[in-house]
Structures are given as C-alpha cells and as structure tokens.
Specification:
Length: 274
C-alpha cells in the first residue's frame, strides 16, 4: 500500500477540488493521501467525505507557513483535529495576513513596472488562502508573464525583487499550534533551508518529523535527511506537493511512500494522546 503525504487542493493554491483530488489519487494507484493545504483546514471535511465514498484514505493535515529570520519555513501538521478552536482562530488571522501580503507583493510588482490588479488575483484565488501561485497564475492570465515558472524566476520567487514576507508565526509557534490540535509537526521540504545550522535550529524547535522524500530531493539529500532523522529520533514522511495545474510538472502518483510511514505517524499520535 502506498501514500502521498503532501497534496494541495483548491482550498489553498492547488487547482483540484477535494473530490477531483480523490478521484485522481485513486486512479494513480494511491491508497492514502494527506491533504495539507497552506494555512487552512477547509478542504479536509470535503476531502475526507470524498475519500470515504471512494475507499481512499484521506488524512487530515495542513501546511503552516512560519517565518524564520528572512525566510518562510513550511511546517506540515499531520492527523490534526480540524475542529480545534485555537487552531481555527489562528488560521483566520493567518488568512488575513496572506491577503495583506498579496497587496504587498502587488506594490513591489508595480515598482518593477508590472501592473497587476488585486481583482485579477482574487478572481483566481476565490475563497482559498491566497498565495504566490495565485499571483503567478494571474500574471500569466493577464499576459504579464510567459509561464508560472517565469513569474517565479523573475518576480516573486524566494529572494526575487517582488517577494514579500509577512507571516505572523515562528517555527516554534507553528509546532505548538499543531501539537495543540493533536497533530504531528513535520518540517516540509528541508532542502529549501540552505543553511544547515538554521536547519538544526528549526529541528530543535520541536518538529517530530522530516519530509525526507520530496521531488526536489536527490538521493544524496535523501540519505542526508534519513541520517538526520535517525540522529534526532524523527519520523519520516514524503510526498509530491501536488498542486494540479498550478505545478503542471508534478503529477499525482509520481511520488509514493510506503503506507508503513502512515502507521508510524498514527502510532506517534497515539503515544502523544496518552
Ligand atoms: P506562498 O505560500 O504564497 O509563499 O507560496 C508558496 C507556494 O508557491 C509553494 O507552495 C508553491 O506552490 C509555489 N512556489 C514556490 N516557488 C515556486 C516556483 N519556483 N515555481 C512554482 N511554484 C512555486
Ligand atoms: Zn503551494
Ligand atoms: Fe511547501
Ligand atoms: Fe506544499
């Protein structure tokens, strides 16, 4: 049995509804997916419902964006309670911050001579937690960028001129929020943290797992992260970071991890609850 522990829906910056996602996952031979939308749990109830209708296990999750020094750090939360009050309250705030950040990025784009309206972005994002992928899609739609990757490379990618921070929580706060909602905090795609000292400090902030298997991780990175996980007693996860048409090169089913990793997550949750 196989799982993909990192997929997004249209409740954040993916393009598939939870129902479409479940159908596609089933077709690609997966037995289990974890829905981990950015800073929202709104896709979980429809996802889990669609999953039970089609005999596909859908795990409750989310991907929180924390800020550490001058970079954003993504922390996955597995097996959270989607109805946890403290979590829901914070997520509302985080969504508002993301909306404000869209305006900040649009201001920066303007200084670069790129005039993109907020309306164009929010028409694409709808009621989802808004993010850079919506901005990139709006830029392509308005003829301001040739492709999503062009928009990231030239304008809004990390360390690019129109990039903006503005996330309100730190890695330890993200960890506590997830644990408080009964979930397992896992550091997402660690390769994005270029500085090993920063990586160790973030691991030290209480994450319980490391996303070892990820499309951008080479075999030597996987080995490095497996060693780190062993050294610090961390759980291991992996997933494709599927975003539908938002990331057209990443297909569902392209990265499958053994279901045993899901069992370890569940075991860790059981231990946390006693
Ligand atoms: P945000 O949460 O608004 O900072 O946006 C982060 C999201 O942007 C990631 O989860 C990806 O979906 C997307 N993203 C980041 N970098 C790139 C890139 N170079 N090409 C395509 N999508 C990207
Ligand atoms: Zn995303
Ligand atoms: Fe991420
Ligand atoms: Fe992601």
């Amino acid at each position: 049995m196989f799982a993909d522990l990192h997929v997004h829906t249209s409740f954040s910056d993916g393009t598939c509804s939870p129902e479409e996602l479940v159908r596609a996952a089933k077709k690609s031979g997966l037995d289990c997916v974890a829905v981990v939308d950015h800073d929202t749990v709104c896709g979980l109830a429809p996802g889990m419902e669609a999953g039970s209708a089609r005999a596909l296990e859908v795990l409750a999750g989310l991907e929180l964006t924390a800020q550490y020094e001058n970079q954003e750090i993504h922390i996955l939360g597995y097996l959270i309670d989607p109805e946890n009050k403290a979590l829901l309250k914070k997520l509302e705030l985080l969504k508002n911050n993301r909306t404000e950040r869209v305006y900040k990025i649009l201001e920066k784009l303007k200084t670069m001579g790129v005039e993109l309206s907020a309306e164009a972005v929010f028409n694409i994002a709808g009621n989802a937690t808004p993010g850079r992928l919506h901005i990139a899609r709006a830029m392509v739609k308005e003829g301001l960028a040739g492709s999503i990757s062009h928009a990231f490379q030239k304008y809004i990618g990390d360390r690019c001129p129109a990039y903006a921070l503005g996330f309100q929580i730190s890695p330890p706060e993200a960890v506590e929020l997830i644990k408080g909602a009964g979930g397992i905090p896992v550091l997402a795609h660690p390769y994005m943290i270029k500085d090993d000292e920063a990586l160790l400090r973030i691991i030290g902030s209480g994450v319980m797992g490391l996303e070892v298997y990820y499309p951008e991780h080479s075999q030597s990175m996987v080995n490095f992260y497996l060693d780190l996980a062993k050294k610090y007693g961390l759980l291991i996860t992996g997933g494709s970071d599927f975003h539908g048409e938002g990331k057209p090169d990443v297909k569902l089913g392209s990265l499958k991890v053994p279901y045993e990793l899901v069992e370890r997550l569940k075991e860790a949750k059981r231990k946390m609850c006693v």
